[in-house]
Amino acid sequence: MAQRSESRPVTISDVQQLVKRKDEIEAQIKACYELLDSQKGVGMNEPLVDAEGFPRNDIDLYQVRTARHNIICLQNDHKALMKQVEEALHQLHAREKEKHAKDEAEALAEAMRQNQSMPQAFAKVNTVTPGSPASISGLQVDDEIVEFGSVNVNNFQNLQNIATVVQHSEGRPLSVTVIRGGKKVHVGLTPKRWAGKGLLG
C-alpha cells in the first residue's frame, strides 16, 4: 500500500482519501465473508477436512482458502489504514490548534503595535457646548487630546498652555489631534468669538 510522504502537511483531502480506501477495504472484507457464507456457512476457523481427514467435497476449497487468506490480508491493511487515518486526523487537529495560536499571537502583536503607535493623550474633552467653535469643528465629549496646535504630551504643563495657544490663534485654524474610540482623528478648530463664553466652548 502506498505510504504518504511525510514531507508535506496532511490535508483534509488526504484524510478523505484514506477514509475512502478504508471503506473499499471494508467492502472487500464483507464480500469475502459473504463468499465463505455461501460455502455452507464456512467461517474462518471451521475444518476443511471431513471426519476421515479427507478434503471436504461439499465446498469449493480453493475459494474458501482464497477468501480466508484475503480476509487476513485485508484486515491487516485495514488496521494499518486506521492507524494512518488516526495519525492524519491528529496532525490536522494539531495544525489547526497551532494555526489558532498563531492567529491569536498575531492579533495580540497587532493590538500592541496599534497601542504603541497611539500617541499619549494629555487632556480629555468633558463638555462641548452646542453651536460653539469646538462643536462646529467636530470635537466630541470623551475625545482624548494628543495634540492641540503646538501643545503635545512632551511640552504640556497645564491647561494654561492651551489657553495661550487659543488666544494667539483667534480666527486662525488650529490642528487638533484626538484619540476617539481607539483611532486617531484630526480636527480643524478655529478659535473665535461666539455667543457663549471663551473662544472654544
Automatic annotation (TrEMBL):
The keyword Cell inner membrane does not apply. This is 26S proteasome non-ATPase regulatory subunit 9. The lineage of its organism: Eukaryota, Metazoa, Chordata, Craniata, Vertebrata. Residues 90-182 form the PDZ domain. The keyword tRNA processing does not apply. GO terms for cellular component: cytoplasm; nucleus. Interacts with PSMC3. Part of a transient complex (modulator) containing PSMD9, PSMC6 and PSMC3 formed during the assembly of the 26S proteasome. It comes from Tricholaema leucomelas. Acts as a chaperone during the assembly of the 26S proteasome, specifically of the base subcomplex of the PA700/19S regulatory complex (RC). During the base subcomplex assembly is part of an intermediate PSMD9:PSMC6:PSMC3 module, also known as modulator trimer complex; PSMD9 is released during the further base assembly process. Keywords: Chaperone, Coiled coil. The gene is Psmd9. Pfam families: Nas2_N, PDZ_6. GO terms for biological process: proteasome regulatory particle assembly. Belongs to the proteasome subunit p27 family. Residues 71-115 form a coiled coil. InterPro entries: Nas2_N, PDZ, PDZ_6, PDZ_sf, PSMD9.
